[in-house]
Here is the input.
Amino acid sequence: MKKSFISTIGLWLYMTSVAQPVLTIGDQWKPVSLGPLASVAVTQLTPAMYADKLLIVDFWATWCGTCVASMPKVAALQQRFGDSVQFVYVTVQDRKVVDAFLDKRPSLRSLGLPIVTGDTMLIRQFPCVSVPHVVWIGADKHVKAITGGEYLTEATIAAMLQRKVVQLPLKEDVLVFDYEQPWSLDSTIQSQLIQKGLLLKEERSLKSRSGFNAVQPGMKRYYSTNNWLVSLYADAYSLRTGLSAHELYSRLNGEEELKERILETRLPEDERGTYSYEGMIRAGKDELSDRAELLQLLQGDLDKYLGIRTWVKVDSVLCWVIRPVHARLEPTKEMKGIVYGLAEKQLNNQSGKAVANAVYMSSDKKTPVLYDGAAGDVHRLTLPLHYTDLEEAARHLEAQGYSMRQEWRLLQTIAVDKR
Here is the structure.
């Protein structure tokens, strides 16, 4: 009986692999009906519905914030290109899970994007570990590209429709290895990372992670993989300042040329680096002290690598300050969170700091944005997804009972100087 069971499973796996071969760029894809669908009136997309169209398959999940945030942009692209393109979202998650997710976010459901739920076919043909994972299938039904979500742009789609040769980098999926072990003991990561000073400039197939652990008796370790330099500096100064990577961006204090070594924003995109780092020390008696020592080690190694000197400095900084004037500051019955629409975002039951952060993230991120009000204030606002300038943000806030003015404030900054 056992032998028969194993044989049956083996035959099923074999037949599945034959029926659903893994496809890559240049392979021909056989058009099939796609479903069951959520978010639209029809139950499935038949081949006739996307015949002679560029088919863009976007693998996603309800827990993927990047995927969810891109949906309004994708809906706008679908409208822009009309019958020339067919977008379809695909998830292995059950229809009930997706429906419950959309019920709490009516603005996403109203976008009308077809969402394949409970998928078992496409994920075998285009296997992926991380999402978003985008498969581009031409009108001739050949796979043209497999990318991340960052290539979903009007220019790329237009070039594809004009049948130009568009060479997009193949998305490399995440490697699986034990982040909790020292890299010197892990042959997988050693083969993927290139030693560069005291940092490791990593393969983009690693997840973005950081953390502390005890890897050997009497040893403590800090590690970070697949992070920007500004994120590493935010970690290095986290215990001393509590600044996030986004906040640190506007709190660098020094010559533009020196700040740019941390930000790398003037470099061409393909030359910007994400980095990995590992540091280990002998453990002391106090966990907090061990973490502080590891992060100081990180800061020193970053400074040495970039040829700069950094330290915490209190300085007078020109900021935008938000204050409630006539705003209603009490919780509502709506869920807590941020809901994204086509051109705006709704902040439901959010803190003052979250409001300031939402304004900051929609700006050029060069000027700090602060909230000056009670810590327990709860806000409900509607804000545009992006601003041309922070004066526009101020007008939107004033229309909803807030003031937003520029003021000089004494703030912790990260000073940057030559070594």
User: Anything to note?
Assistant: The first strand starts at residue 37 and ends at 38. The chain has three domains: 16-161, 183-306, 316-418.
